[in-house]
Amino acid sequence: MLRTLLIVLLLIFAVVVAAPPAQAQSSGPVYELRTYTATEGNLPAVLARFRNHVLQLFQKHGIESIGYWVPADPPKSQNTLVYLVRHPSREAATANWAAFRSDPEWIKAQKESEAAGKIVDHVESVFLTPTDFSKLK
Q1: What pLDDT band is residue 55 in, cutting at 50, 70 and 90?
Q2: C-alpha distances in angstroms, 115 versus 85, 119, 129?
Q3: Any bridge partners for residue 31, and if so which?
């Protein structure tokens, strides 16, 4: 009896350990969550650069805009832009960013918007894959 119970427990353990996690899809589009921290006093300049230049360039280079947000509460509401974009794949994301960064229109817009100094202190990027229960796929 004890031996049978032990075998059943080992089988259950093997099934649980061998089962793939129900968290992320392995293929398809990837999302990228990006957080920009502006240098002091320059969030309006960052937002203007996105509004006037970046959104059009993203579209040109296959970077699909999902949403853009500023945190509701200080201190991050004073210097932070958070946005979500979608790429067809991780490889496409690499190609999209390379094309964007080398685009003469972007180089010009960046240079002009930073004529008085840097407006972005740092950027954080996290690639995300949707779970099987996510509304965004």
Answers
A1: very high
A2: 27, 9, 37
A3: 86, 128
